[in-house]
Amino acid sequence: MSIQWYPGHMAKARREVKENLKLVDFVIELVDARAPESSQNPMLQEEIQDKPKLVVMMKRDLADAETTKIWLDHFKDQFSYAVAVDVNNKKDVQQIAQAARYITQEKLDKQRAKGINPRNPRAMIVGIPNVGKSSLINQLAYKKKAETGDKPGVTKKQQWIKVKNEFELLDTPGILWPKFEDEAIGFRLASIGTIKDQILPQDEVAIFILNHLKEHYPELMEARFGFSDFEDAVEAFDKIGKKRGALEGGGVVNYEKVAEIIIHDLRSNRIGRISFERP
User: Fold this and answer.
1) Spatial contact of 175 and 130, defined as CB atoms under 8 Å apart
2) Which of 6, 21, 171, 184 is the most buried (most CB within 10 A)?
3) What pTM value is reported for the model?
């Protein structure tokens, strides 16, 4: 199964990213710390190419801390710099300004050595929808500059934003790529809320989450749902439905409601800190 999802505004945004890359000194790419590879847009990698890049792993407070450390080392081996961020943690957010200075320092020093008074560095911030880009921009700017929302696709246009006296930031809409050839990527992104809930059947997304918990986080599954093993999805849904009161008349389990419970518990961090992949 391949999953296709490519609204027209995303195609336009990709063209604008390509056109505006020449205006910036480096790129800030946001990924979700719970699925850092799946949340990297391969089309953006093609466009960015050799431009210096800072990878920011967002929502680190929702991801497995040990796995996040492994990902940071992985990205640092590949790119200029990488940081993990909880957007509500001021020290985390400050890391981005520090990294921006680190990335652009050599270029600025060369300009000053030639007697040139350099302008503030410019960066383009890119990422897939609902990765927390607008929330991060508002924290960096210390005021509400970007519209935020808990659904993918809130930002629809590009805008320049000043980050104190550190650098200027070009905001861009979240961009997905036309097709997920690997269905696991689609299910990871659906689990964490990157793609709209209408794209994939919610019961299948919930089953994907349960299977991942069973294999990698049985202790968290046991603590939240009261069991850590099951033969099939029907058994698992029945147990959760009866325990959480997701019942219809006659005590019949409402599987649609159970799927909503599982997905909501994951996204609201009620299960615990979970990562969906390793390098």
Assistant:
1) no
2) 171
3) 0.85
